[in-house]
Amino acid sequence: MKTVQMTLEPELVATVDRVARKQGLTRSAFTRQALTHELERLRTRELERRHRDGYRKKPVGRNEFDAWTAEQAWPE
What we know:
Number of strands: 0
Distance between the termini: 54 Å
Largest sheet: none
Number of helices: 2
Order of helices and strands: HH
């Protein structure tokens, strides 16, 4: 791992320390988890944007999925 130095507001550090302690984590472990979570959230957001853009460029055609209707199993 690489050591990095960050500048944070004292209130943020206190909150992170309190929450990390409750979760049984170190400040570093908590921060790694938070950064990883945020990067994954941004990645998902980008994939969703690309998905939307794709459907805007090539919308679903009329009756495009009709062939699959019989394959669906709907609970009664």
